Amino acid sequence: MLVKLVLDVFMIILKMGGSILTEKDLAEPKVDYDNLNRIAEEIRQSLYAEEISNDLIDGLVIVHGAGSFGHPPAKKYQIGQPFEMKDYLEKRIGFAEVQNEVKKLNSIICESLIEHGIPVIAIPPSSFITSHNKRIYDFDLNLIKTYLREGFVPVLFGDVVIDDEVKIAVISGDQVLQYIAKFLKSDRIVLGTDVAGVYTKNPKTHDDAVHIDEVNSIEDIKFLESTTNVDVTGGMVGKVKELLDLADYGISSEIINANEEGAIAKALQGMEVNGTKICRK
Ligand code: ADP
User: How far is the CA of 227 from the centre of ligand 1 (A)?
Assistant: First the structure.
């Protein structure tokens, strides 16, 4: 059972981080098929779980990151950085390369989801979203609503878009999620990444990093260092900022470790999972 009525559905957005679906720190694109197929199975189980009644998943939107597919070409062509018009041709090649790479990743992800019986529809942001100064400006949600109404699971991703100020911008999966959640009023938002949410320091490089259960304001994260150097979208700090913006609209979200078997399935079904909740007090 997927969708009742689009304006009266229990709607969930699941973000699958590039760090989970790909070997993100590599300079070459590489999919983590074990994680992808396991998570696809967890989504399938959650969508069709008979015991969920009240919190039945009526509408699910999936957003994924670009991981080792998008970040290396974005970095190579410095997509998202200011440039001179004489370099526009090269930038457009870079734009095309990034878009093509993330599309390839999207296709692999959708293939796995379809094999697991999930009726996905890929919706590439570059084909209909534009931005103003790197923030989404024009994003018609009607098509997403229509697919949800028909019982499909729209799949969007971090992508490149045309920007009316800086010409070419990278729009992170986190920003896409934030926009959809805000305007479709999502009921549950789950972000699966490769750590159990937010810590006082990067837990991958600091043994003394302390877990933060809840983030309520920008003050709670201002001391955080930035994430891995291949990420052009701000990593954990960027993610939390997008989610705090959502929290201003009364929409809370959680970041969990999707490497933990069953964590995505539990979170989708509204069960308690180790992670960080982002909400206003
Ligand atoms: P994804 O690709 O899954 O969306 P990101 O790579 O953007 O995730 O962000 C997750 C990464 O952020 C983690 O792999 C972690 O190494 C890094 N990171 C840096 N600082 C922190 C922190 N203070 N707390 C948690 N993770 C952090």
Answer: 6
